[in-house]
Amino acid sequence: MPANAVSTRTAAYQYPRRRHSVTRARDDLRRQLVRWRVGGEVAYDAEVLVSELATNAVNAKALPGREIRVEVTLAQGELRIEVADASGELPVLRCAGEWDEGGRGLVLVEALAKEWGVGPREGVGKVVWAVLSLPDATLDSPDQNRS
User: Fold this and answer.
1) Which terminus of the chain has fewer CB atoms gathered within 10 Å of its CB, N or C?
2) What pTM did the predictor assign?
3) Number of domains observed in the structure of the chain
4) Cα distance between residue 89 and residue 91, in whole Å
């Protein structure tokens, strides 16, 4: 199916707000992209984006016990990644110092994504999203996936 086809595909996952959930989100995304035959640089960039957004959600100041939600949508030549958490604290794009251990996540999101933003989450919290463009060549042909 060409990347610009009108078909919309969505996958959603819920995770506890714990550090290991970032790895699970990345692994689930990787498997989903293989099923959708999205490969190459877009797949790699999508893994980086979901890692950074999920890390921010896990680290967000929110009520204990709340989950994070990752939703991935493939439609109209784009891949949209959304990560929702229960924190009302908005993400801030900032420059990390040379020796800072964190603070580079949104800089990576800004560099890799076609566009990104934040909006309200249904109920409480926020959704941070990022969009990647899908060139036609990004979708692997069925023959390329066979061993």
Assistant:
1) C
2) 0.82
3) 1
4) 7
- The number of C-alpha atoms within 13 Å of 72 and in the hemisphere containing its C-beta is 25
- For residue 115, give the CATH number of its domain: 3.30.565.10
List of long-range contacts for 25-34, beta carbons under 8 Å, 24+ apart:
25/50, 25/51, 25/54, 25/68, 25/70, 25/83, 26/50, 26/51, 26/54, 28/70, 29/70, 29/72, 29/81, 32/72, 34/145
pLDDT per residue over 61-83, tens digit each? 766 668 999 999 999 999 999 99
Distance of alpha carbon 98 from alpha carbon 76, whole angstroms: 39
- Looking at the domain assignment, is residue 114 inside a domain? yes
Whether 33 contacts 74, CB under 8 Å: no
